């Protein structure tokens, strides 16, 4: 079954966050979605689909790479659609490379860093739908080599202490908190 690896990652994530009711609610909803929809990795699933994202930090761990997303006109971590790919870590890594131009990016761990389910507004022929986003933490060895892609208005390294200058989105602030906890 092609969904087993993602379900295993989600089960591990659930165990790691067993004491957090909010994380548990999101994780249970995510697991339920994946179990009910064999085509959860396909963008054509109109109610929603799996996406993969990258929380990319510089070698010092003090800055995160954010994109000013062209379609959504807001600052986010890099990421995108699975488009049928079931290896969500590979999806996150490929999206990170495509959207940043960075080649020398490595996962900090194979485990999920964060999950989020968020609503995407209707746009042209695409109806409103949910993104079931799985996020992994990465480190960029050559942070100065970023290249702006067509998907972005801007691409920038943001000091974690200044994250609110670009976004106050809850999941972005949650990821900063998680990253800072890892850093000690």
């Amino acid at each position: 079954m092609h969904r087993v690896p993602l379900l295993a990652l989600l089960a591990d994530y659930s165990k790691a966050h067993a004491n957090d009711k909010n994380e548990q609610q999101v994780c249970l909803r995510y697991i339920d979605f994946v179990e009910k929809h064999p085509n959860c990795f396909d963008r054509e699933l109109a109610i929603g689909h799996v996406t993969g994202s990258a929380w990319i930090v510089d070698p010092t761990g003090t800055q995160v790479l954010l994109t000013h997303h062209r379609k959504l006109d807001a600052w986010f971590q890099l990421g995108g659609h699975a488009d049928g790919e079931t290896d969500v870590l590979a999806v996150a890594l490929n999206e990170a490379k495509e959207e940043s131009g960075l080649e020398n990016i490595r996962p900090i761990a194979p485990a999920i860093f964060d999950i989020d389910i968020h609503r995407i507004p209707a746009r042209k022929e695409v109806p409103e739908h949910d993104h079931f986003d799985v996020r992994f933490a990465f480190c960029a060895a050559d942070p100065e080599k970023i290249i702006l892609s067509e998907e972005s208005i801007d691409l920038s390294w943001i000091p974690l202490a200044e994250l609110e200058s670009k976004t106050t989105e809850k999941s972005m602030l949650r990821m900063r908190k998680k990253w800072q906890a890892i850093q000690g």
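Residues 21-36 form the longest helix (16 residues). Strands lie at 48-57, 63-69, 74-76, 78-81, 105-107, 114-120, 129-140, 152-159.
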